[in-house]
Amino acid sequence: MKKLINKIVAIIPARGGSKRIPRKNLIDFCGKPMIAWTIEYALKCDIFDEVVVSTDDEEIAKTAIEYGAIVPFLRQNSYDDFTPVSEATLHTINQLESIGKYYDIVIQLFPVCPLRNHDDIIDAYNFFSKNKSDFQISCFKYVWMNPWWAVKLDSNAKPESIFKNFKQTR
Prior knowledge:
The termini are far apart. The protein is globular and about 45 Å long. Strand 6 and strand 7 (159-161) form a beta hairpin. The chain is α/β, with parallel strands linked by helices. It has helices at residues 34-45, 58-66, 85-98, 118-131, and strands at 8-13, 28-29, 32-33, 50-54, 105-108, 151-153, 159-161.
C-alpha cells in the first residue's frame, strides 16, 4: 500500500437510472443542473485534492467535467436500485487506487443537495477532524425521510438503526 500524505477526495456518487425522479442529477435547479451545485461547493471549499464524480452515465460525466469535477472512469457496477450508495463509493475508491490514486480521507457528497453549501461541508469536515473519528455521517432530525432509515444515537453517540430488519430497504 502506498504511503498517504493527508490527501482528501470528495466522491459524488451520481447514477443515471433514478426511478422516482428520472435524470434527477441533471434537472435544472435555479439555472444549473442539480449536480453542479454540489461540485461547485466542493471546489469552493478548497480542502479537496480532487472532486470526483462516480457515475454510470455519460451525460452526467460530461456535465460533471463542465463544472470542474474529474470523472476518471464510468462505473461498471454498483449502480442499481438495490446497491447501497456506500458500496458505490467503496467501488470508486478501489477504481481510483487501481489507477494509482490514494487518499486517506474520503468525503462522500450526495449530488442532489443544492441547499448544502461550502460552509456546511467545511463545518462537517472540521467537526470530523476535531473529533478524530474513523468515520462520520451527516444526520438531521427525522421529518420526511423513509422511516426504515431512521437511527438513534447510542450511549457513545454512534448511530444505531431503529428498524434493523429493514436497513437495506429502499
